[in-house]
Amino acid sequence: MKIRDIRLYLAVSILLSACAIPLMAQTKVNVDEVLLLSYLRLNIVKQITAQTSALATDSDPQVLNEVKLFADKWSENRIQKIRSDLEGWFDTTAKERFRHFVAGYTTAEKEGDAKYLNMLAESLSLGDPVPQDYAALRQSMVNRYLVTDVKEGSRLLSDVQSWVEKKKTTGAGPLSQYVSAGTQGETPTTRPPARRAPPKPRVVEERDPLMEAEADFEDVEYKPEGDDLSPLDAYSSMRKAKREKILKEAQEGMKLVADERKAAEEEYAAKKMAAAEAEASAVKEHTKDLSDADKVAQEQRENNWGNRLKKIVGTTVGAAGGALFGGVGTRAGEEAADALFE
User: CA 320, CA 313: separation in Å to the nearest integer?
Assistant: First the structure.
């Protein structure tokens, strides 16, 4: 960067800072730090969105569209947060300050401007070792401030990758639910359907056919006229006693049969319950094994994506204006500002 450009950059920065003084009067803030972090966060979001879409390029159009819609929504939420933070610091001058910073930064990086690099490193108070190039500067910022951004992005990419793979084989639910389960600490696997407990044995109300067949004599009152019963009355009384005895024995026999049947049904239900619990336990163990395997694979994917994102930040983002924006200097500043504020 030429001395004239540096002076112009400093002059514009001072002018814009004066406009933002009322907002930052009571808050100590490093302007270069806020702007550089916003730029790096924007680039990370754009890289994650691009990588997410690339994961589904070989899938059918429906899957590809679902991934694209999800990535766009995720990106929109992240960009809105970056924009809100900048507007919180700089109010109406946020877009102009961001555009100007990106223009100056990308120009200096493209030209390998060591003076600008040292000035920025000193402003950011990075300390020893002082970054020797812009890749080292970005890597230092990532390690200090953007670890969470990289971690969230790597988790998102690993979840989307897992979902796309499952969609091709065993099937999976909506991507948003799958990613939501992953972010809540669950292993987003295809779970077996819940098993219903076996029904309780139906209690059948016992009916006494002999009792129902007998006539009801409760309302008939017999009053003998004398102390001695006639032969007919004696026969009737004896017959009644015999009938009552037979009825009692029949009732006891039917109760015994009912008790035995109830015991048999309870034993059968207990065996079925034990078999169902054993099967459920086996399914649970199998699911746990699958979940553990998925968890290991998920962690491995997250680590791979995290390392890849850090590498991208250290080598690609910002180089020649960043492949995402395709410009350097003024053009890069305008493209970055439009991506963030439009």
Answer: 13
- Separation CA 125–CA 132 (nearest Å): 14
Local structure of residue 204 (DSSP, 8 states)? P
- pLDDT for 279 equals 67
Residue-wise pLDDT for 96-141, tens only, equals: 999 999 999 989 988 889 999 999 989 888 877 788 888 889 888 8
Could you tell me the two tokens for 32?
Answer: 């270069």
Say which amino acid occupies 96.
E
Q: How far apart are the first and last CA of the chain?
A: 29
Q: What angle do CA 140, 93, 328 make, to 5 degrees?
A: 50
Confidence of residue 34 (pLDDT cuts 50, 70, 90): very high
Could you give the angle at the alpha carbon of 27 between the alpha carbons of 25 and 32, nearest 5°?
A: 95
**For residue 265, how far is the Cα from the chain centroid?**
45
Token readout for 93 is: 């001058």
123's CB contacts (< 8 A; 6+ apart) are 30, 32, 33
CA angle 97-103-104, nearest 5°? 90
pLDDT tens profile 247-304: 888 888 888 888 888 888 888 888 888 877 776 665 565 455 456 777 787 788 888 8
Burial of 218 (0-12, 13-18, 19+ CB in 10 A): exposed
* Model confidence, pTM: 0.60
Contacts of 294 (CB under 8 A, 6+ apart): 162, 187, 188, 189
